[in-house]
Amino acid sequence: MSLRSKVGTVGALITLAQLAVIVRDHWLAIPGRHRARLQTLVTRSRGRLANLTRAEQAELRALIAELRLVELARRAGPVALGAGRGRRRLF
After folding, report:
1. Per-residue pLDDT tens over the stretch 2-15
2. Which residues of 46-84 are buried (b: 16+ CB within 10 A; e: fewer)?
3. Minimal CA–CA distance to 42: which of 60, 26, 54?
4. pLDDT at 36 (0 to 100)
5. Domain residue spans in the chain?
6. Helices (DSSP H) in the chain: which residue ranges?
């Protein structure tokens, strides 16, 4: 394995670790009872909204909205795309 590929592998692992920390922090910012309920509903749905009642579907949508995925993408995106490594930031 060449030095260049080793550096690339290490860089990829560092990027994955940074993303894991960002996602973990984002997840833990949600109240524990909401995280638990979200997990319960996702498990019950088995990936299909039709497996939930209408009330549960509405609750799941509200909990997903609480995840603030746009904010997560704004925080994780620059890390995933390598911003700061000689590339010009657009925003």
Report:
1. 555 666 778 788 88
2. eeeeeebeeebeeebeebeeebeeeebeeebeebeeeee
3. 60
4. 96
5. 3-81
6. 3-28, 32-45, 54-66, 69-81
Q: What is the dihedral of CA 15, 30, 71, 55, to 10 degrees?
A: 120
How many CB atoms sit inside 10 A of residue 9's CB?
A: 11
For 62, the token pair is: 């509200």
Cα-based angle 77, 34, 54 (whole degrees, multiple of 5): 100
The rounded distance, in Å, linking the Cα atoms of 67 and 91 is 23
Extract the tokens encoding 11. 């860089």
Q: The tokens 């039709």 sit on which residue?
A: 50
pTM: 0.66
Cβ neighbours of 32 (radius 10 Å): 8
